[in-house]
Amino acid sequence: MRTSKLLAAATIVFLSTLACTRVAYRPLLPAQVADWKMVANSLSCASAIPPNLNLSPDTAKARQVCTAQYVGNPNIAVTVYAMPDSSAAFEAVQHWSQPQSGKGAFYQDNLFVIVESPSTDIPTLARFSNPLKSTLAGQQHN
User: Fold this and answer.
1) Distance separating alpha carbons of residues 32 and 119, to the nearest angstrom
2) β-strands 36-38, 64-71: how paired?
3) Which end of the chain is less enclosed by CB atoms within 10 A, N or C?
């Protein structure tokens, strides 16, 4: 009897710990976006936001940040912030500076995404961003 109570208590503690543990999330960034291909082994994720990627109080709220490089014409760098919820991702976009040559941002679900390529115009970034946004739509983002 005592053994079954101890086993039940241990099971409850284990399940509680498991429920509180956050599984590392790696966004399902596609290997190819339109005419761009992800550089092999360029996807990198961290749950602690590195100082160089902590751009604002908004990005400081991210649960995780991932970066990837895509090769094409032009090469494009992608930074994805997994925010606590879609409203936090929306706020991050709202606080993002005005569109500028070489940089763009959007949100999809709870992801705040920045795409960058120096000296690239907004229409070219949109040719990359629009299919990427479609790919990210509806994925489970922890």
Assistant:
1) 22
2) antiparallel
3) N
